[in-house]
Amino acid sequence: MNPVAEREARVVMQTYGRFAVTFVRGEGSWLEDTDGNRYLDCLGGLAVVAVGHGNRRVADAACEQLSTLVHVSNLFYTTPMVDLAERLVGLSGLDRVFFSNDGATTNEAAIKLARRWSQSRRGPDAYQIVSLDGSFHGRTLAALAATGQPAKQATFRPLPAGFVQVPAGDLEAMSAAVGADTAAVLVETIQGEGGVVPLSPEYLQGLRKLCDDRGVLLIVDDVQAGIGRTGTWFSWQSLGFVPDIATVAKALANGLPVGACLASDRVAAAFEPGDHATTFGGGPVVCRAALAVLDEIEERDLLANCRARSDQLRAGLESVAGVVEVRGRGLLLAAVLDAAVAADVVVTALSDHGLVVNAVRPDAVRFAPPLSISADETDEAVRRFAAAVAAVRGTHPSTSSTVSEPGAGKTSS
Ligand SMILES: Cc1ncc(COP(=O)(O)O)c(C=O)c1O
């Protein structure tokens, strides 16, 4: 057994099912384990590592800040936070930012802001958040209450009141659910954890109109799809609508914990001093790292790379025997298999072909590589995936070349 796994099993709460590999370093799109095996990372730490592992610019920015000033609390001003807020406002078209620490705490901020705005206008009963079946908004109690996955909620009842879910893609169901007690509609543009299921632009634009007509807020949870992952800075920017509130986290600092809740001026004004706070949110180190991520995406034109590699990856995956559909946008894609063998494919890809991906449904494998992945690496990812699918299905890979040797990793179990 992996010696680190043995130690982990003794001292860490057993909330995760982990793969039997221990990674020790990363560079660009590649990871290396304790035995020196190399893996092509097409998961990016769950859609986090946007500008590649070991990114020099991000490391330098964070290190410089680490030895200058790490923390003073939100009782004082710090410049990196304001620099980052200005950048996010400029890129998003929204007006104001509240910084938090991860996806769940950022969604908590969004929910509290929506309630505050709505209740201050329409009275104490206007607090409900309507979200979608199949959604995922995080594991804190309110974010979990908004998450449309009953299996994840079941063992933690009672959940906070004021949350209801309706079927995704069904405007009539949403229209019926939005009433006098509704504060906001909360959606992802692509349900990432729910299986990489994109919502159509027409549906999202319909939600925008419905929210406007009924005087309720539209919140986009862009925690997974934001910061370039779909080929635009924020996922809604290619979908023909603008939310009132949006949340981002994962990719913002390339792996350091930070989240940002963005809102229009008219909504953000509902928060008054003392309404919401966090000890760590918006600290100088993570903000410097995030600024470096944004610089890196801009200067290396990684949005264009994301779009080009997305087309290439989609076409490649569609050509793999056993893949019946490729869905998603940008570099958040799922290859849907003709059988419920995604878990086997993922383990085989990892242990025999040095490819890191994960299963989002019994028949669907998620790809969320760094936005900096190269054309050659994208072809290589498809070859390795095809080989893993073929091994599980007991056939030969459908793509022309076989898995290349360097980096074809073994797990260290
Ligand atoms: C859309 C979305 N929202 C929220 C979260 C929760 O983020 P975190 O795990 O950083 O709390 C996730 C995590 O996967 C997510 O995909």
Helical/strand content category = alpha/beta
Sum up the overall morphology in one term: globular
The proportion of residues in beta strands is 15-25%
Distance between the termini: 5 Å
Query: Strand order within the widest sheet?
Result: 4-12-11-10-7-5-6
Approximately how much helix is present in the residues?
25-40%
Given as residue ranges, the uncertain stretches (5+ residues, pLDDT < 50) are 400-413
Q: What's the quick description here?
A:
This protein is of the alpha/beta class and 413 residues long. It has helices at 3-11, 44-47, 56-66, 79-92, 103-122, 141-146, 150-153, 171-177, 201-214, 265-268, 284-299, 302-318, 342-353, 375-393; strands spanning 23-27, 30-33, 38-41, 96-100, 128-132, 163-166, 182-187, 190-191, 197-198, 217-221, 245-248, 259-263, 323-329, 332-337, 355-356, 358-361, 364-367. The chain contains 14 helices and 17 strands.
What characteristics describe this protein?
globular; 413 residues; Aspartate Aminotransferase, domain 2; 14 helices; binds pyridoxal-5'-phosphate; seven-stranded mixed sheet; Aspartate Aminotransferase, domain 1; four-stranded mixed sheet; alpha/beta
